[in-house]
């Protein structure tokens, strides 16, 4: 399992990401940090029926982003996140892999702080 805050180009605690209302319910907003495509830090914020959750956008099976196109990281029924390369499936609420080559692993959770309707990268636990 990766440790998100130790990754190259990981955002620092307190980095502003967006406003709460910029993440529509049951949708994701992606963020990339860094200048080099090979070393980008990728993450996304998901609005789980009003509760924002953030994950590192990396499949634990082979270190590739879950999506090829922006926002396209759900199963066809939108019940789980899915890696578009390896078809691993992940719970929306905790990032745990339930099916596929990384079953039993999970997406790296990134803590968030919500302050005055603004979303920030939270403190590392």
Q: What structural keywords apply?
A:
single chain, 125 residues, mainly beta, 0% helix
Structure summarized in a few sentences:
The protein is mainly β and 125 residues long. The chain is 0% helix and 31% strand.
Describe the protein in words:
With 125 residues, the chain is an all-beta fold. 0% of the residues lie in helices and 31% in strands. The chain has strands spanning 16-19, 28-33, 41-48, 51-56, 81-82, 89-90, 97-99, 112-115, 118-121. The strands form three sheets. Strands 1-9-8 form a three-stranded antiparallel β-sheet, with no helix packed on it. Strands 2-3-4 form a three-stranded antiparallel β-sheet, with no helix packed on it. It has a three-stranded antiparallel β-sheet with strand order 5-6-7, with no helix packed on it. A hairpin with a 6-residue loop joins β6 and β7. The two termini are 15 Å apart. The model has no long low-confidence stretch (mean pLDDT 94).
């Amino acid at each position: 399992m990766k440790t998100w805050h130790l990754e190259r180009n990981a955002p620092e605690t307190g980095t502003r990401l967006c406003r709460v209302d910029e993440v529509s319910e049951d949708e994701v907003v992606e963020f990339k940090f860094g200048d080099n495509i090979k070393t980008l830090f990728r993450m996304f914020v998901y609005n789980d029926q009003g509760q924002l959750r953030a994950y590192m956008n990396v499949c634990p099976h082979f270190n590739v982003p879950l999506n090829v196109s922006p926002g396209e990281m759900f199963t066809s029924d939108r019940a789980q996140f899915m890696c578009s390369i390896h078809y691993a499936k992940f719970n929306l609420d905790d990032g745990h892999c339930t099916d596929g080559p990384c079953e039993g692993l999970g997406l790296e959770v990134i803590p968030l702080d919500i302050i005055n309707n603004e979303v920030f990268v939270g403190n590392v636990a």
